[in-house]
């Protein structure tokens, strides 16, 4: 809301400014209100270009999340929406670019029309002033044969404008959900056109095709006093307005807006490169069912918190591609691990590379770790953890850490109750996580806290053979699908019932709801959080948190 308000204020302020500023009196005589539209959108473009890189400075966000004392729950939750904000700013840039481009197309048409006019009107007289001296021109089109296309592709502002617009179009269109999911490489490489975008933005205003009257000239021949004499000037003129006005370019300001973010982002990238070059040792490789690869690694100086994620690169597959993976290990362990599901060309090739027998272990580079919403799980007395498929990975880290805290009899643990929900399409996906849940069940029973963790496993895809097998062994003490004490539920959760039960069990608690899963599930959970949160601050309140990377 603050970002939107600033954009509206900037656009309105500069629209009125350029529509009334006396330095642009003669410019408006040729261009009309299109000048204000072009300049106001340019100011907003500069503002949003300043912001676009900040949400993807992952080290900055992790610093704010983890070490800044002013980052309370509300602000920390805002940091979790960094990618959403990045997309909003990108859409705003696309819209403002369209407004800016259309306004300048109108400007060029009016410049061209004024240059060709022979009616002695003020725009016609102003357009011929280039014949009287190099500093006197106001209209950049000096010939009747000059076309709009010629100006667009032969001048610095025109050419850089075309390049900027094409780069922005490619970046926005390749960022759609479909492209990112199915052709990640296209998204990855086209997004690096931001280098061309910023280079073009800085250069764009250097030539200064849009001009205004200079301060010195205004003191001598103010437009309100002297404009009327331009169209009816006598050869033996002797009054104060005989001298022709002089014009100068509007100073370029884009570099002032984007310099600090570019320096910050450059430092961010240097830090990433330095960290990624540090040696990573793969200590263990495990192939789980459903083509899920587990990598256990060690790296000097690596420190993590629960729910964090890292970026992984395998130079043997691609030198430039980096992909995010949530850490599944606990901070208490002497290694860090990730679980990789086959979900695209890069992951398929990585799994195939590690599956090759008698092959040399491929080199892995790691950047991170970076903070996420799941870091805050131990800040809540009650937590609801919801994972869909491989989206269970951040909660593996959390549950492992809880196991270690019980082992060490940690008295500082604020969390009193955890509800864990895991939704899977096939039974094979449960296999790699079963051992952890089984050991947690046993440890909590031994500690007299068997009710600390309540988990529900939902199988959303099954066939008749699975259903018949479950029916035959319905009375057994352990589940036939997972071997755990809690029985697998066939179908999807009834979230209203689940939230109502949690609210009834904890009527005065603050409940953190954490999701790693698809957007459709996020909407359902967010809706349930609003419906079941009490308006009374003394009663139950649900706070929704979603993984974004």
From TrEMBL:
Instruction: Give the record's GO biological process terms.
Output: defense response; superoxide anion generation
Q: According to its UniProt record, which reaction does this protein catalyse?
A: NADPH + 2 O2 = 2 superoxide + NADP(+) + H(+)
What is one cellular component GO term in this UniProt entry?
A: NADPH oxidase complex
Matching Gene3D superfamilies, A to Z? Nucleotide-binding domain of ferredoxin-NADP reductase (FNR) module, Translation factors
A Pfam family hit: Ferric_reduct
Q: Which residues cross the membrane?
A: 88-106, 150-174, 186-210
Signal peptide range equals none
Localization annotation: Cell membrane
Q: Is this entry keyworded Chloroplast?
A: no
As one GO molecular function, the record gives: superoxide-generating NAD(P)H oxidase activity
Give UniProt keywords alphabetically: Cell membrane, Glycoprotein, Heme, Iron, Membrane, Metal-binding, Oxidoreductase, Transmembrane, Transmembrane helix
Q: How does it sit in the membrane?
A: Multi-pass membrane protein
Q: Which residues form the FAD-binding FR-type domain?
A: 266-376
InterPro entries reported in the protein's UniProt record: Cyt_b245_heavy_chain, FAD-bd_8, FAD-bd_FR_type, Fe3_Rdtase_TM_dom, Fe_red_NAD-bd_6, FNR_nucleotide-bd, RBOH/FRE, Riboflavin_synthase-like_b-brl
In its UniProt entry, what is this protein called? NOX1 oxidase
- The organism named in the record is Himantopus himantopus
Task: State which gene encodes it.
Answer: Nox1
């Amino acid at each position: 809301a603050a970002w939107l308000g600033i954009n509206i204020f900037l656009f309105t302020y500069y629209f009125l400014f350029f529509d009334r500023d006396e330095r642009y009196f003669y410019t408006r005589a040729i261009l009309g209100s299109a000048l204000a539209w072009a300049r106001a959108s340019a100011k907003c473009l500069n503002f949003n270009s300043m912001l676009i890189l900040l949400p993807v400075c992952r080290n900055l966000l992790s610093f704010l999340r983890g070490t800044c004392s002013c980052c309370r729950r509300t602000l920390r939750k805002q940091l979790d929406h960094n990618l959403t904000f990045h997309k909003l700013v990108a859409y705003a840039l696309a819209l403002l670019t369209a407004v800016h481009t259309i306004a300048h197309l109108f400007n060029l048409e009016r410049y061209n029309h004024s240059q060709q006019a022979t009616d002695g009107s003020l725009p016609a007289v102003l357009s011929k002033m280039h014949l009287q001296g190099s500093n006197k021109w106001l209209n950049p089109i000096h010939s009747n044969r000059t076309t709009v296309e010629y100006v667009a592709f032969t001048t610095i502002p025109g050419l850089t404008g075309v390049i900027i617009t094409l780069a922005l179009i490619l970046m926005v269109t390749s960022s759609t959900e479909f492209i990112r999911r199915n052709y990640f490489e296209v998204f990855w490489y086209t997004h690096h056109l931001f280098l061309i975008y910023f280079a073009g933005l800085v250069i764009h205003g250097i030539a200064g095709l849009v001009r205004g009257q200079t301060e010195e000239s205004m003191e001598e021949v103010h437009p309100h006093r002297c404009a009327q004499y331009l169209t009816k000037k006598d050869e033996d003129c002797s009054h104060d307005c005989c001298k022709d006005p002089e014009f100068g370019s509007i100073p370029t300001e884009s570099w002032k807006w984007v310099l600090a973010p570019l320096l910050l982002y450059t430092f961010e990238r240097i830090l990433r490169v330095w960290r990624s070059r540090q040696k990573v040792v793969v200590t263990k490789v495990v192939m789980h069912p459903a083509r899920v690869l587990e990598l256990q690694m060690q790296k000097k100086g690596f420190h993590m918190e629960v729910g964090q994620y890292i970026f992984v690169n395998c130079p043997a597959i691609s030198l430039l591609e980096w992909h995010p993976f949530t850490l599944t290990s606990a901070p208490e362990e002497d290694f860090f691990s990730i679980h990789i599901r086959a979900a695209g060309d890069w992951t398929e090739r990585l799994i195939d590379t590690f599956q090759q027998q008698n092959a040399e272990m491929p080199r892995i580079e790691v950047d991170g770790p970076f903070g996420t919403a799941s870091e805050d799980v131990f800040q809540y007395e009650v937590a609801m953890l919801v994972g869909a498929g491989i989206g269970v990975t951040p909660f593996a880290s959390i549950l492992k850490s809880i196991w270690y805290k019980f082992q060490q009899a940690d008295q500082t643990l604020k969390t009193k109750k955890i509800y864990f929900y895991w939704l899977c399409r096939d039974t094979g996906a449960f296999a790699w996580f079963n051992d952890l849940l089984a050991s947690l069940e046993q440890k909590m029973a031994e500690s007299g806290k068997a009710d600390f963790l309540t988990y529900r496993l939902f199988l959303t895809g099954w066939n008749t053979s699975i259903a018949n097998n479950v029916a035959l062994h319905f009375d057994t003490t352990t589940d036939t699908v997972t071997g755990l004490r809690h029985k697998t539920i066939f179908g999807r959760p009834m979230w209203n019932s689940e939230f109502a039960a949690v609210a009834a069990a904890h009527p005065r608690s603050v409940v953190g709801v954490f999701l790693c899963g698809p957007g459709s599930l996020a909407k359902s959970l967010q809706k349930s959080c609003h419906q079941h949160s009490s308006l009374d601050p003394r009663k139950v309140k649900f706070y929704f948190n979603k993984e974004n990377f």
